[in-house]
What we know:
The protein is globular, with a radius of gyration of 20 Å. Helix 2 packs antiparallel against helix 3 (46-78) and helix 5 crosses helix 8 (144-166). The protein is mostly helical. The protein has one domain (2-279). The protein has helices at 2-17, 23-38, 46-78, 84-91, 94-106, 111-129, 134-138, 144-166, 172-196, 205-233, 235-240, 242-257, 263-279. It is built from 13 helices and no strands.
Amino acid sequence: MFGWLLSAGVYIAAKWAGPEMPPWTLCFARLALACLILLPIVRPHHGRMVALLRARAVEVLIIGAIGLAFCQGTIYVGLNYTDATTAGIVMALSPVMTVVLAHFVLGEPLGLWKTLGALIALVGMLVIVAHGDLAALLGLRFNIGELWIVGAALCWAVYTVLLRRAKFGLELLPTVVLLLGAGALGALPLALWELASGNHLALEATGLLALAYMAAPGGALMYYIYNRSVAALGAGRAGMMLYLQTVFVALLAYLFLGESLHGYDLAGAAFIVAGLGLAAIKVKPPRAEAAAVK
């Protein structure tokens, strides 16, 4: 729970740092600093990490860039156009997206309930990005900020599926450190492009504190706690705790940013929660007959 509270704080810190630091530069700085902080902790694994990079460097780079650079960078871009509360709600779509992608990429069974859950969650997303305006929905007029966050949720789903398929064979924390470094490399060209385009840094005390939080408590410490929770609870139960992040983002945004929930946020969140609930239903296969009829 504490790890997801730290993760929720990243949304607030990104809103604070936004006016002083371009989004892709912020993304690069957070990932690079978090990687450097965690690197000494995984020192016993350095030999195996180097061996993995020698064998599968391109794969590590692609997965890290999609899941950590593109996912986080698009969140920071989206936060320039929408509030943190809405961003946190939309990101709750990623588990449903993951279920659908896992069906097509990994061949995992989808089934009736997961299909219905995905469709209902999709309705919730559309309600949010159209701000509850049916005319805007029919005219395909969406808020650009929410669309960026939808892209981030999709990147996280793709990252999760690719990582599940890759099976790197390392413990979770050293794998995360490698992916953080890969994400930083993936964000670097976009950060340099921002600087070349005239989007220079204007860091003051607020921006520096926000970046420090995103890199250390909201970055390195959050990843470390999450990996400990996976070891203690298992990946499935630890992953389900993601939904707490949405609640924490809304609470922190209310306390520190003065944001409040809109009617369309609540309606969309209700659809998303209902969709997640349906997707989580497990249907037991029928029991085999105890004895065949002779």
